[in-house]
């Protein structure tokens, strides 16, 4: 490499000028150059000589040539000069062992490698201006040097088409997109109309999507989590956003607005399929703390999209108000499970919820049993749960009517498999014994429903569990 | 790079003469010739069908002209065949339309794809055309990885995407370019109408 620059004094001078423009003092520039290219290519006096020239606006040896007012124009007006700058950058990153690193750590190659090139290009743009050399052009030259081809005069065949992303056939685009995660999809769909339309028409299977209002330190924040990746929008004075891949990024709008914009972008895809949608936020009383009305904003976001394909909808720490507002935006039939973490004290499970198709067509209903505060909520009549395959619900108390209803309706449902009911008050076993006409041995009773199946009923102080069993 | 300029490239030099196995000769659109083993060809559904249909014997391969691959250049085809030789005999993944699997890029493939985007897209195009499923998968994964953690503006730079404004401007320019002609036709039509003729019909 050193040989090449020795034989190409102009390219060598371009490298020096590149160092000069980046404000290296002479001695640093000399050290840098020796480290990068080699010790025997130039001596420090030469560097000093040329830096003095550059300072006077002179690039050539001839004195009568026009003076440059801005030395950067040397690069802007000469593609060979720019290639020499790329060459120098390549040598520098090679020296920093990065090139070697790409090769030895294959898993990091594409990820680190691609981004590394991107940042070098960014550096060049910062020095000379945005449009001085496109990224693909830069990349082309970088890889030529990487493959040991240092010929700066090489000309790409302009007749031949240079392929770009948008030239790829549809099947290829689909294949590429399969590998792009949700956050990057959002960014990609914001680049241009054709990509936006394309991305919104592609099926996207996501495991879990969690929308969570939380605290970052002592400040409110919104966190999206998709599988192992998450993106946090927090109000730490400057509305920052952070996800696993990117650096912190300052936002120009309030943190929650940015969060909802991204959330909308993800859910507006009609072919989005979610295994779980987890909504975790506090009560309406916290709205002031977060600076916005969580449920209203969620509703607005959901309104803009198609009904979501969600298998399991989980409300953590929620209110029936939230359930009432959000449930209609989930596709009935596709939704099989509704899980409710914690209902607030004296919250009422509204009849409106029970009337919804989403409720009627779901198969599983779960509430957490750990906290008894929600037990005081009025969850409505037991009847509303009889269509489920499995459910667990808290009630105030077990009445004779409840037991009769279970026997007459629930136990006749062909779909019903099992349930778990917990109560505020202790269960009066004699009521149950009377209804089922048998005594409980070891707190367990068998209730036959056919020749082959029966229900096993277990009861505890404040809880009964029913499950379908085979004879 | 000197290998590329040689008239005939043995992609898998070591293996061929020893085992005396069947190999085929292919020619790129810039007249570079490649010898590729039968097993490696199986990675490409398109080429595999082609050679099956041709039913060449070992003598045929030597005596008949190399099979021309019209729309792929030598530089790209070299990468394609290097990949096929390295991965010969491996099972070809089947896309059953279910939830997509996570693609890992092996070290060999990563090194092979240390190329600029122009060439990478050519490689993808070739992998699609020759129907080499796994090569398509890894190369698409590489393109996808470039998107990681970038802002829309950065993505436009990486993939050379037009912004919506640029797109609009281009459309407007195209329309304006068309307009004068449209106006001329209209004017002519008006003119004729004024003259009372119905020569348009």
UniProtKB/TrEMBL annotation, chain A:
Residues 162-208 form the F-box domain. SMART domains: FBOX (SM00256). It comes from the Eukaryota. One of its GO terms (biological process) is innate immune response. InterPro entries: DUF38/FTH_CAE_spp, F-box_dom, FB224, Mos1_HTH. This is F-box domain-containing protein. It comes from Caenorhabditis brenneri (Nematode worm).
Automatic annotation (TrEMBL), chain B:
Transmembrane segments: none annotated. Residues 166-201 are annotated as: Disordered. Residues 26-88 form the SKP1 component POZ domain. Residues 169-194 have a biased composition (Basic and acidic residues). Keywords: Ubl conjugation pathway. InterPro entries: SKP1, SKP1-like, SKP1-like_dim_sf, SKP1/BTB/POZ_sf, Skp1_comp_dimer, Skp1_comp_POZ. It comes from the Eukaryota. Coiled coil: none annotated. Pathway: Protein modification; protein ubiquitination. The keyword Transmembrane helix does not apply. GO terms for biological process: protein ubiquitination; ubiquitin-dependent protein catabolic process. Residues 134-178 form the SKP1 component dimerisation domain. Probable essential component of SCF (SKP1-CUL1-F-box protein) E3 ubiquitin-protein ligase complexes, which mediate the ubiquitination and subsequent proteasomal degradation of target proteins. Regulates cell proliferation during embryonic and larval development. Belongs to the SKP1 family. This is Skp1-related protein.
């Amino acid at each position: 490499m050193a040989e090449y620059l020795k034989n190409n004094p102009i390219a060598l001078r371009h490298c020096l000028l590149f160092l000069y423009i980046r404000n290296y003092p002479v001695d640093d520039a000399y050290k840098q150059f020796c480290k990068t290219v080699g010790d025997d290519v130039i001596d420090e006096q030469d560097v000093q000589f040329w830096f003095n020239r550059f300072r006077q606006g002179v690039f050539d040896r001839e004195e009568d040539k026009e003076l440059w007012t801005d030395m950067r124009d040397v690069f802007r007006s000469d593609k060979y000069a720019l290639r020499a700058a790329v060459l120098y950058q390549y040598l520098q990153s090679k020296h920093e062992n990065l090139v070697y690193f790409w090769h030895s750590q294959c898993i990091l190659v594409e990820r680190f490698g691609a981004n590394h090139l991107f940042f070098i290009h960014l550096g060049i743009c910062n020095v000379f201006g945005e449009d001085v050399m496109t990224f693909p052009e830069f990349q082309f030259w970088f890889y030529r040097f990487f493959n040991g081809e240092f010929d700066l005069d090489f000309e790409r065949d302009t007749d031949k088409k240079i392929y770009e992303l948008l030239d790829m056939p549809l099947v290829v685009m689909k294949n590429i997109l399969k590998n792009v995660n949700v956050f990057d999809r959002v960014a990609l769909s914001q680049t241009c109309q054709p990509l936006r339309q394309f991305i919104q028409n592609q099926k996207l299977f996501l495991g879990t999507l969690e929308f969570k209002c939380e605290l970052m330190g002592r400040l409110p924040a919104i966190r999206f989590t998709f599988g192992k990746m998450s993106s946090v929008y927090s109000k730490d004075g400057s509305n920052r956003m952070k996800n696993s891949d990117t650096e912190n990024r300052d936002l120009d709008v309030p943190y929650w607005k940015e969060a909802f914009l991204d959330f909308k972008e993800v859910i507006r895809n009609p072919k989005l399929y979610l295994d779980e949608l987890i909504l975790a936020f506090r009560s309406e009383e916290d709205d002031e703390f977060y600076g916005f009305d969580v449920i209203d904003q969620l509703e607005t976001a959901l309104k803009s999209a198609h009904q979501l394909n969600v298998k399991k909808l989980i409300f953590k720490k929620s209110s029936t108000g939230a359930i009432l507002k959000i449930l209609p935006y989930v596709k009935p039939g596709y939704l099989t499970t509704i899980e409710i973490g914690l209902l607030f004290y004296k919250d009422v499970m509204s009849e409106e919820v029970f009337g919804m198709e989403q409720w009627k067509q779901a198969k599983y209903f779960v509430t957490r049993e750990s906290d008894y505060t929600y037990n005081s909520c009025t969850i409505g009549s037991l009847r509303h749960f009889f269509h489920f395959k499995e459910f667990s619900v808290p009630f105030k108390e077990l009445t004779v009517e409840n037991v009769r209803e279970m026997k007459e309706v629930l136990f006749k449902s062909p779909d019903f498999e099992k349930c778990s009911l917990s109560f505020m008050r202790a269960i009066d076993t004699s009521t149950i014994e009377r209804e089922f006409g048998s005594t409980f041995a070891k707190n367990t009773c068998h209730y036959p429903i056919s020749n082959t199946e029966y229900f096993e009923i277990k009861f505890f102080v404040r809880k009964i569990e029913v499950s379908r069993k085979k004879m | 790079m000197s290998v590329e300029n040689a008239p005939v490239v043995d992609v898998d030099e070591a293996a061929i003469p020893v085992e005396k196995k069947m190999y085929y000769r292919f020619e790129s659109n810039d007249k570079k010739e490649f010898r590729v083993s039968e097993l490696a060809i199986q990675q490409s559904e398109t080429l595999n069908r082609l050679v099956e249909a041709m039913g060449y014997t070992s003598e045929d391969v030597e005596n008949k002209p190399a099979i021309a691959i019209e729309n792929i250049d030598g530089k790209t085809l070299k990468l394609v065949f290097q990949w096929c030789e390295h991965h010969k005999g491996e099972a070809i993944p089947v896309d059953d339309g279910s939830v997509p699997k996570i693609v890992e890029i092996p070290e060999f493939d990563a090194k092979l794809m240390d190329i600029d985007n122009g060439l990478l897209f050519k490689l993808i195009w070739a992998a699609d055309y020759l129907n080499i499923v796994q090569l398509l998968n890894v190369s698409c994964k590489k393109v996808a990885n470039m998107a990681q953690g970038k802002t829309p503006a950065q993505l436009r730079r990486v993939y050379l995407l037009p912004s919506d404004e640029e797109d609009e401007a281009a459309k407007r320019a195209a329309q304006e370019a068309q307009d004068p002609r449209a106006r001329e036709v209209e004017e002519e039509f008006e003119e004729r109408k004024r003259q009372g003729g119905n020569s348009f019909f």
